[in-house]
Amino acid sequence: MSVFRLIAPAATRALVILVLAAGSVWADERAVTVDLGVGAWKYDFDGTIATDPTGVDLQIDFGLGDDTDQQYFIDVSFAQRWMPNLRFEHSTVVGTGARDLGRDVVFGGISFPAPAGLRSRLTYQDNHLTAYFPVLKQGDLTVDLGLGVKRAESGFRVNSTFNQIETAFDETLPMVFLGVDVQLLSGWSINARTHALFWGDQQVIDGSATLSWESPWRLGLQMGYRHVQFQLEETGDYSATDFEILGPFASVTYRF
């Protein structure tokens, strides 16, 4: 992940400059549209993490199940074609699990022998800033392309009667953004958004598909599905991560 740590600060500085420039445009011409959205994400976990040569399964070994937490976004669109649009997204995940081990597990250098009862808690926080341009507008179809920075932080705690271990990772990652939006009739629209990073065998993908409705009073609703995948090596306390957080979401939106 050392390459990501070299690239991310430069990408972050570039986005800060764009945000400051956006503030200047807003103050001078106020030719902006602001969309706010607050909602809930009902997610589930899948995949493995490893601190040792063998990985552990988040569901099978640790019993992490589905849960619901918050997410929100702020999207600022500018009328000036030379000015990139800006989108900030935040989500928080807190998953818990309980399981009687079906096999011996080694995690963080600590042995958890079967059939020990385990309790686990995974936290994940995601902050994402994206600058993007509409590269294609044809009728009701809009295609956006941009660059972003994702700040991802995660902590994982496992404890049994006799042992306890806490692990974590935090990464600042440059991401490529692609969005497709199709306007339908009577305030309805569908869109798909993907933030992605590929480097060798490693990848981070954060994608969603959304059905949106906006009323004549600018208040709206969104329903969709989000899929986040981390496939990284040597990140934080982990030798490898290959896990997903995925599930449906719903949001209330307002356009200024």
Strand composition percent? over 45%
Question: Major sheet: size, sense and barrel closure?
Answer: 10 strands, antiparallel, barrel
Rounded to the nearest angstrom, the radius of gyration is 20 Å
Structural class: mainly beta
Mean pLDDT: 86
Low-confidence stretches: 1-8, 14-18, 20-29
How many helical stretches?
1
How do the helices and strands follow one another from N- to C-terminus? Answer: HEEEEEEEEEEEEE
Major sheet: order of its strands? 1-3-4-7-8-9-10-11-12-13
As a percent range, the share of helical residues equals 10-25%
According to DSSP, the number of beta strands is 13
Query: Could you give the distance between the termini?
Result: 40 Å
Outline = elongated
